[in-house]
## 1
Amino acid sequence: MKALSSSVAMRKRLTRREFLGEGLLASLTAALAACTASDGSFTSEAHATPTFELPDPKGLHEARHYRQLTGNTVQCQMCFRSCVVLEGGWGFCRNKVNIGGRYFTLVYGRPSALQVDPIEKEPAFHMLPGGTIFCTGTASCNFRCKFCQNWHLSQRHFNEMDHYPTTPDETVKMALEAACDAVSFTYNEPTVFYEHMFDVAKAAKAAGLRTLCHTNGGISEEPLAALLEHMDAVTVDLKSFSPKFYREISSAELEPVLRTLQQIYRSGVHLEIVNLVIPTLNDNMNEIQQMCRWICDKISNQVPIHFNRFFPDYKLTSLPPTPVETLEAAAAIADKEGLEYVYIGNCPGHERNSTFCPACGKVIIKRAHFHLISLDVEKGRCGFCGHPIPGIWWDV
Ligand code: SF4
C-alpha cells in the first residue's frame, strides 16, 4: 500500500545528493551491524557509536519484547534480527535506542502518516468491501527493500521526518470522527512501531472498530501471538519465494516470513498475501509455482493472493513496470495450483480486481481498482449459490 506523499512531510528536506550520502552511511552501519553473534542473532556493535544524537529518555516509551544482557547491553526480541544493542546504540530499524541499559522506542504516539483510505487499498479484498480504514505509519523499517514504494517513509530515521503527536486514544477518536470502519498499521513496517500499534489496536477493538496490520512478516513469534489477540486481519507481503532474493534485494530472510504466515493462519485471524512481481528479479514462473504450491500445502488454498504490478521506484528505477501478461501468467499458475481467490493489483480495471465465486464462477464482488461496484456476498456466502467465502463481512 503506497502512502500518499501529501500525508508525509519530511522535517528536513534532503536533496538527492544528501539522501544518497545518508543512504551510504546507513548501508555502512547496516553492513557493520550485520555481524552475527554466537547465538546467531544480529549484533549491532556498530551502533555503539550512534548514527544520530541520543534523545532525552524523558517522555520516551519503553520498548516491549527485549531482554537485558550484561553490561547495559540489550537484545531486542521483536523481529528476526534479534539486534544486540550496546548502551548508546540503535537497533537496525533505527527506531529503538539503548539508554542506560533500557530500550526505548522513539515512535510511540508519534506517527508520520495518518490517512483515510478504502480498505481495498491495503489490499484487503475479503474485509468489509467498500469500507474505509484509518491508516497510520511511522518512520523506518527492519528491511531494506531496493524496490520500496514507500521509501520516503520506510527508509528514513525518525529525526528526518515530521511527526504528529497522537496518542492511541486520539488515533481511535480520529478514526471514529472520520466514520472509518477499521484502523490499519501500514505504509512502513508496523513491527518497528509495535508498541504504538498494539495500544491503538487494543483501543480500536474496545471502540468497536476492526483492525488490520500490513506487514513484511519479519516479526518474531511471541510479539506476533500477543498482537493477533487484537487484530482482525493481516496482509503479508511475501516478496519472493527465494532466500537469495530476500538476502540480496531486501537485506532480509525468507524463513521467518513463512513461519509468520503459518502462525497467522493457525490463529484464525483473516490473512491475505501480496506478491509484488518485479521484472527479472522474482518473475520466474517456476518459483511462483513453488510459492503457490507451498501456500496450498502449508497454509490453505482459501487464502487470497494478490499479484501486484511493480512500478520503478527507489533504487530500482532502471527496471520497467511489470508487463500485465506476466501478472496474468502468475495468476494462471496460482489458479492451476488450486488457489481460489487470485487477484491482480495495481492494474485498475483488470477483471481480476474482482472476486469470483470458486463454486459457481459468478462475480460476487465487482471492483474497479479499489472501488466497490457491486457486492453479492450474504452472511459470508456467495449470493448466487451459497458457497462459503472466507473473510470479514458486513452482515456476519
Ligand atoms: S525491531 Fe528493530 S531493533 Fe528490534 S530486532 Fe527488529 S530491527 Fe532490531
## 2
Amino acid sequence: MRTLGLLASSLSLLLSFTAPALAWNATGHRLIAAIAYDRLTPKVRARVDALIRRHPDYEKLFLRDAPAGPIARARAAFIAASVWPDQIKGDPRFYDETRPNASPPQLLPGFPDMARHTTWHYYDTPYTPDGAEPGHQTPPHALSELNRIIPLIGTKADVPSTSASNPVYLLPWLEHIEGDVHQPLHCVTRFLKSQPKGDAGGNNVYIGARNLHSLWDSAAGRDDSEAYAAKYAADAVEAYPAKRHIGKKPAQWIAEGFQLAVSDVYTFGNETGTRDHPLALPPGYEAHAAKVAQQRIAIAGYRLAAVLNEKLK
Ligand SMILES: [Zn+2]
C-alpha cells in the first residue's frame, strides 16, 4: 500500500514539471464553460457572444487558436474567456493590488482597473478539526464578488467600458469564479494548532513536488484539446445528469464545497507534510479526487448556464 502511494507521488512529480497549475487549471475551467455554453438558449447565447466580442482582450486572447467558422469561433471565445482571470496573473499589463505599496500601471482602454484581483478566486471557510483558532477572510473574495456580479450580468443599459459594473468586463469573471468555487479547496482553509496561519486552501499541504491544492486543481486532467473536452463533458453529463433544482445561490455552492473538503479532501488526518517530508496520500486518493472533480465540473457547468439563462433572458 505504501509503495502505491510512493509510486503515485513520483508520477505526480513527473507530471508537475510539465505544466504549472493555477486554480482549476485551464482544462477544468474550459470544461465548465463548454458544458455551460452548450446549455444556453439561442437568445442568451447571442447576448453572451455579443458581450464576449466587446471584451478588450477578445482579439488578443479569446480568439487565440479559435476556429474560423462563426459558430465554433463564438463558442471557442466564450470557453477561452473562462481562463482569462488566471491568465492576467502573469500578464505585465496588470498588477497585484494586494502587495504593499503596489502602484497601478497605465489604465488600458476597456478596463475599469488593471488589478489582478487574485483574492476573488476563493472563499476561505475556516476548518478547524483540532480546535485551532480560525482565521477569517475579508472581502473582496469569491462570495462577495459572485453576489455582486450575478445581479449586474444582465444589465442592458450601455454602461461605460471603464465602469467596474460593465457586464462585458464581468462575464469572464463570472465564468471563472463560478467554476473556481466548485473546486472544494477554493471554499476552505484548514487551521491546525501546528499550522495556525492556515494552509491557504491546501497550498501548504505537501504531498510531493505538488501540493494538495494543485492536485485538486488538475483533477480533471491537463488536456486542452477539443477531443478531450468533448469526451470528458459527455462522460460527466452522463454520469451526473442535471437535476431540476440545482441551486443558484453562491453561498450554497461554497457550503457544498466546504462539506466536500471535510468529507472527501482532508481524509488523510491532521497532517500537512513538509517540502522535505511530504505526506503520503491513502491509496486510491487521486482516483477518487478525479471522480469528485467530474461531478463538480458537471454541476458548475449546469449552474453557470442556469444563471446566464435567467439573467440574460
Ligand atoms: Zn481561479
